[in-house]
C-alpha cells in the first residue's frame, strides 16, 4: 500500500476531521515547565474566606418504620372494574353467604352490572374501617351500604334509602339483604332508588 501525500485543502478537509494544533516548543524544554508559585498571605485569607461554609447542613429526620402508616388491605369479591363498592355486614361468613350473593347479583344484573364490575366487602371482617380507607383502597365513585350504620365508617348521619354525596362518593344507605328478602315493601322501596343509582 502506498502512502498518500497531498497539499490539496479539500482533500485534507475530507480526511482530516480532527482539530490539529502546532506547537513551536520542544517537549522537555524549560519553556514547557509549569511554574508553581505559593500564594501570598492576603491571597490565602481571601481563598479561605470563600471556601468557609456559613451554614451547617441540616439532617433530615428519617421517620420510624412503625410511624409510617401502610394503607389498609381488604379481601373482597369482584374486580371493582366500575368502582362500585357494596358493603355488607355478615358475622357468620368471611365474605357473603350464597343466598345473599345470589340475590345481590340478580339485583345488579338488572342494572346491567356483573360481579367483575363490583367490589363486595364484608365490613364485619374489617372492624374500625373508615370511609377514607375505603376510598383510598377502592377508588370508588359509588357505594351502597346494606344494613350498615353510616357512622360506623365515619360518615355523617345519612338518611336511609336516599342517595347522598360525601367526599366525591355517591352513597346509598339501605336495608340489609335479609330485610329485603323477607319484606316485599322494603324490596320495592330499595329497587325504586337502586334502578336510578
Short account of what is shown:
It contains 6 helices and 5 strands.
Characterise this structure.
It is a single chain. The chain has 197 residues and is α/β, with parallel strands linked by helices. 28% of the residues lie in helices and 13% in strands. It has helices at residues 9-15, 41-51, 98-110, 131-138, 177-182, 184-194; strands at 84-88, 118-122, 142-146, 163-166, 169-174. Strand 1 (84-88), helix 3 (98-110) and strand 2 form a beta-alpha-beta unit. The protein is elongated and about 110 Å long. The mean pLDDT is 83.
- Global shape: elongated
| Mean pLDDT reading | 83
Distance between the termini: 89 Å
Radius of gyration: 39 Å
Give the fraction of residues assigned to helices: 25-40%
The SSE order reads HHEHEHEEEHH
> Helical element count?
6
Which sequence of strands runs across the widest sheet? 2-1-3-5-4
Largest sheet data: 5 strands, mixed
Regarding quaternary structure, what we see is single chain
- Helix-strand category: alpha/beta
Low-confidence stretches: none
Count of beta strands: 5
Percentage of β-strand residues: 5-15%
List keywords for this structure.
alpha/beta; 5-stranded mixed beta sheet; 28% helix; 13% strand; elongated
Strand and helix map with partners:
Blueprint: H1 9-15, H2 41-51, E1 84-88, H3 98-110, E2 118-122, H4 131-138, E3 142-146, E4 163-166, E5 169-174, H5 177-182, H6 184-194
Parallel strand pairs: 1-2, 1-3, 3-5
Antiparallel strand pairs: 4-5
Amino acid at each position: 500500500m502506498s502512502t498518500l501525500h497531498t497539499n490539496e485543502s479539500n482533500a485534507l478537509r475530507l480526511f482530516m476531521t480532527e482539530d490539529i494544533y502546532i506547537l513551536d516548543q520542544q517537549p522537555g524544554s524549560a519553556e514547557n515547565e509549569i511554574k508553581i508559585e505559593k500564594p501570598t498571605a492576603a491571597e490565602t485569607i481571601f481563598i479561605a474566606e470563600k471556601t468557609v461554609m456559613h451554614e451547617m447542613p441540616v439532617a433530615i429526620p428519617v421517620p420510624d418504620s412503625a410511624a409510617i402508616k401502610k394503607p389498609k388491605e381488604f379481601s373482597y369479591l369482584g374486580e371493582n372494574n366500575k368502582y362500585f363498592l357494596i358493603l355488607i355486614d355478615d358475622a357468620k361468613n368471611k365474605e357473603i353467604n350464597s343466598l345473599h350473593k345470589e340475590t345481590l347479583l340478580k339485583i345488579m344484573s338488572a342494572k346491567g352490572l356483573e360481579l367483575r364490575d363490583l367490589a363486595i366487602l364484608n365490613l364485619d371482617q374489617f372492624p374500625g374501617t373508615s370511609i377514607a380507607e375505603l376510598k383510598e383502597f377502592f377508588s370508588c365513585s359509588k357505594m351502597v351500604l346494606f344494613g350498615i350504620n353510616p357512622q360506623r365508617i365515619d360518615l355523617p348521619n345519612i338518611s336511609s334509602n336516599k342517595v347522598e354525596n360525601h367526599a366525591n362518593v355517591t352513597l346509598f344507605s339501605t336495608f340489609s339483604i335479609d330485610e329485603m328478602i323477607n319484606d316485599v315493601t322494603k324490596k320495592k322501596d330499595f329497587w325504586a332508588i337502586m334502578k336510578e343509582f
